[in-house]
Amino acid sequence: MKKLIVILIVIAAVVGIGGYAYKNYLQNQEMLNPKFYSGNGRLEATEIYVSTKLAGRIEEIFVKEGDLVKKGDKLVQMQTNTLEAQKAATLANIKVQEGELAMAQATVKNKESAFTGAEKEFKRQSALIATNAVSQRAYDESETRFNNSKADLEYAKASVLAAEGRVAAQKAELQRIEADLADSVLVAAYDGRIQYLLAHEGEVLSAGGRVMNLVNLTDTYMTFFLPTSIAGRVQMGAEVKLVFDAAPNHAFNAKVTYIDPIAQFTPKSVETKVEREKLMFRIKANLNAEKLQEYISNVKTGLPGVAWVKLDPEADWESSPVKVSKPAK
Predict the structure, then answer these.
(1) Element (H, E) at 281
(2) 25 CB contacts (<8 Å, ≥6 apart)?
(3) What is the mean pLDDT of residues 300-307?
(4) Cα separation of 61 and 63, whole Å?
(5) Residue 230 CA to chain centroid, in angstroms?
């Protein structure tokens, strides 16, 4: 009986040790070949500067710092009195040039009529001179009138072309002025938030002068770093879940949009769960732009969080370390 108990105890111990060893083996395999991996990062967005195309004075600013704006919203009105004066002068010049063009075209018609008459007369004189029905002098005079009328017609046609060129040049100048007038109204290029005002009403800026900083909230992403042993397994377009410290119960869908082709030394700000790697790869994951529209008023750049990358395309997020109480967005 005692021997049987000892044998059972030994078997149980062996099974327990084997199970523990197998469990450790699976854990070691998971660590060596994980299906998911995480990196720390912060929410970022593309920033642009709203700048003037032309030198000028700021007439009015329609937004303030922190305002949420839509693509095409009017942000700044530059002073346009000089451009308006140039436009009025150009319109007047166009009328003058169009008048000169009309006169040149009328001259062409007159010269065409004169040329037709001279041509007919010269042909008659040419037929008569062959039979000595007219004098040589009369023939020579008709030839001279024909050649002169032909030259006058060519000159008139050239004058029309020159007048048309002047009208076209003035109209092109008008288009340039109207384009500058349109560019004097600075509008939002994207849906976003005004971060900083860099100039104020009444200030005179040079061409390209910056008026404000706009955060493009439709291009929001997290940049994080992964060790070389893991980064090589990350594919472009791989699924990513972003979990922010401010909203730990939500996981936001993202996709890998950039993988740095060159490894770099681990930035000081990067923290890893394992021993610090000497070399890391920078990864960028963009949030879904359409989904962002639903939460755009709540998006705040700089929020810290964790990016979980799916390394195995066949893996199920239900088995991932990402544990949230609310469904992913």
Answers:
(1) strand 279-287
(2) none
(3) 87
(4) 6
(5) 33
Give residue 269's pLDDT band: very low, low, confident or very high (50, 70, 90). Answer: low
**CATH superfamily entry for domain 81-183:** Helix hairpin bin (1.10.287.470)
Residue 30 is predicted with a pLDDT of 45
- Cα angle 232, 234, 238 (rounded to 5 degrees) comes to 165
Q: CA 190 to CA 50: how far, in whole Å? A: 11
Counting Cβ atoms within 10 Å, is residue 233 exposed (0-12), middle (13-18) or buried (19+)? middle
* CATH number assigned to the domain covering 35-47+216-319: 2.40.30.170
Amino acid sitting at position 323: K
Determine the residue type at 8.
Answer: L
Work out the pLDDT band at 108, boundaries 50, 70, 90. Answer: very high
Strand partners of residue 293: none
> Which class is domain 49-78+189-211?
mainly beta
222-239, pLDDT tens digit by residue? 999 898 889 889 999 999
Residue type, 173: E
Higher per-residue confidence, 120 vs 4: 120
Domain boundaries, the chain: 35-47+216-319, 49-78+189-211, 81-183
d(CA 177, CA 175): 5
What is the per-residue pLDDT across 120-129, written as a single tens digit (0 to 9) for each? 999 999 988 8
User: Which tokens sit at 72?
Assistant: 């095409």
Number of Cβ within 10 Å of residue 117's Cβ equals: 13
Q: Do domains 49-78+189-211 and 81-183 have the same CATH topology?
A: no
Half-sphere exposure of 75 (CA within 13 A, CB side): 34
